[in-house]
Amino acid sequence: MILLKSHGRMDESILVCVYYGPNSDRLIRRGHKIATMLDCPLYVLNISRQSSEEFDSSQQEDILNWQALSQELDIDGLILKTNEDRPIQQVIAEVCNEQNISQVVIGQTAQSRWEEITKGSFINQLLRALPFVDIHVISVDRQIRVKDHMYEKAIRAYLVDDAGIYRIYFDLPETFIYEGLFYKELGTDFDNGRFKFMHEGKTYEIEVDDGYIHDETVMKNLNL
């Protein structure tokens, strides 16, 4: 969890529940607007049944984005619950009790009418678990939009200083400067693409040419 700042009001506290995908940014920013109006703490929660070691590259990228957004918006806590086998509403209720949450922001679920009849509405289950908490259900875009079709799916990579020459490794090296995600350009046999990583709470992207970094300006700004 990241704790960043104090507030004028502590009788109100906002929790945004996010899942992997393109809509989490919108939910976090909506929660931030509410917290700013109330001048109260804001927390972001993600619940996963996987361990962090099982996350794929897209999940790792989402976590990097949440961390960067937490820094940008001065969010008080980013809470990642992994290896959870309990019902989601139970975990949310537990976090609400721990952080004295008064309002929860969630995305509109794509649950079908048949699922609601046979399994019960998740919203109703959450209302029963949080009888004294206000719940904001935000309509989200269910269509995933890919911003850039020029790159393959991201893979984990490491930025290494090889005697003053910066290059990308895909196997874990003994020492490295940054761990991040590499997006390889489509239609090439070379390691050309973009390397995305975090430095001091900010997300950076640098161009990779056949596995090497030639952007001296970025390196200078990072004090490398």
Distinctive features:
224 residues; alpha/beta; six-stranded antiparallel beta sheet; five-stranded parallel beta sheet; 6 helices; 11 strands; 28% strand; elongated
Structure, described:
The chain has about 220 residues and is of the alpha/beta class. About 30% of the residues lie in helices and about 30% in strands. The protein has 6 helices and 11 strands. The protein has helices spanning about 25-40, 55-70, 90-100, 115-120, 120-130, 215-220; strands at about 15-20, 40-45, 75-80, 105, 135-140, 155-160, 165-170, 180-185, 195-200, 200-210, 210-215. A 6-stranded antiparallel sheet has the order 7-6-8-9-10-11. The protein has a 5-stranded parallel sheet with strand order 3-2-1-4-5, sandwiched between helices. Helix 2 (about 55-70) links the parallel strand 2 (about 40-45) and strand 3 (about 75-80). Helix 3 (about 90-100) packs parallel to helix 5. The two termini are about 30 Å apart.
